[in-house]
Amino acid sequence: MNTSRRKWLASTAALGPGLLAAGAAGAQTPAAGHDLGARTYNIRDFGAKGDGVTLDTAAVQTAIDACHREQGGTVLVPAGVFVIGTIELKSNVALHLAAAGKLLGSGDGKQYRAADAIPLTGDATMRDGNVGLIVAVKAENIAITGPGTIDGQGAQFHSPGRGVPPPSGRGGNDRPYHVLLYQCTNVAIRGVRLVASAYHSVRVIQSRHVEIDGIHIYNRVTGNNDGFHFISSQYVHISNCDVQAQDDACALFGSCKFVTVTNSSFSTRWSVFRFGGGEPENIAVSNCLIYETYGCPVKMQCGPGSRFENISFSNLILKDVTGPISINLGTHAWHGSGTPPPGPAPMVRNISFSGIRATVVDPVVLPDVHFGGYQPGEYKTCIVLNAVEGRLENISFSDFHAVFPGGGTAAEAAREVPQTAGEYFELGIPPAYALYARNVRGLTLANVRFEAAAPDLRPAVRFEHVEDAAVNGFSVGGNPDAAAALRFTDARDVLVTAARLLTPARVFLQVEGAGSRGIRIDGGDLSKAAEPVAFEAGASKDAVKLRG
Q1: What pTM does this model have?
Q2: Looking at residue 76, which CATH number applies to its domain?
Q3: Do 483 and 413 form a contact (C-beta atoms < 8 A)?
Q4: Which residue segment(s) compose the domain that 116 sits in?
């Protein structure tokens, strides 16, 4: 032992045992208030019974209020089934559900109340009710964590027939969401299981910095059972989630910005990523599995005054889906909400789809959705890029391989698509089996492969008024009984390089209209076509330059 250490030990001994004892005692007895913001509030300590029968709303709310009043902490839902109506989550409170803990939404509609601070005016997306099972308004630093369950008993809010009230006595837009957040900041939802909501599962309005990770949503007991529904929210990050919904699985309405969705799976009767209105931008969806989706995985409806920009979809598996992509620009009379007000022409630009494998099918009835049906336009679907008004530009598909159901007739191949910007199924059966594009500028197809599972007399691709397009490394299935594999009408400045016909076709490309010009076919293998190019409806042979 060195001299300095001996001197230190001697001086400590001279002070006696009191100093060390005081230090030990201080470590064991923190000063009052040192754990503010870190305490746990067990709802049973506030009177909750958890017997699956007793209404525990007041006890749970009292625990939340106490936690909030004492600068936050964790409100614990221990093992048990706790029946509740509307509760309000407040700033700095984390609601944690133990593995065997369940919050069970009451089947009595009278146990729910509206959050009056959430307006029901303005944009149509804000009119879908303001009632929730768990509500937070202008709160910050809030969390809902698992691994417990929140069960909304949504079947109690489903009417057994037209004109018949649901068992809960509460229906329409007065149904409660699982989670309803309005103008909140720093939100985390992790690990929980959300089942059987009466309406959307997670609805987030005008909120910022929202993290959702590792949750499971099963929501298929009544109509409008969305999974996630975001309205004009920013810095939203979704990962490692599993969503089985009846309606939109992940709606992004209004001006959502800086959003990522990754490593998640989705299945629904309706659409997965649905955009409507506002100015959504800077959104990335990646590494997701979309399966058994009978209503279009990616659906964009852009009306007057709206702009969609800088949105990417990458590394996706689309297994047994309809659609699968629909982008529509123009005025559309939404059901029940009238025609959107006039505004600047809509714009959609800089949208990319890459690394995608898709199996497109005709819809079937999901075994756990016992209501609703399908319309004729939901069969024989394809990718639709449809600008009736405004500008649709810089759309790209790369490393995109898809098999479509086929079965199209010659009459369907010849039909004209109505000048409407409605839902994809409202356009009727499209005149192409893989891709229909109208009024698009700056369209890129690179390493794209389209096939039909059954013989189809429609072309694989139809361009109408498409300008500035590049088609490179394109492989496509043809049909010798169809007019052509590709059909261009009034298309301009289109470069087709390294194209390949996978199966025999009468014609590779049929060009129509006096407006067609600047089309070049360079290289590739078109040997399976009886003719490489045909001209119809006033198209000039000078419109196409062909180099083998």
Answers
A1: 0.91
A2: 2.160.20.10
A3: yes
A4: 35-160+167-247
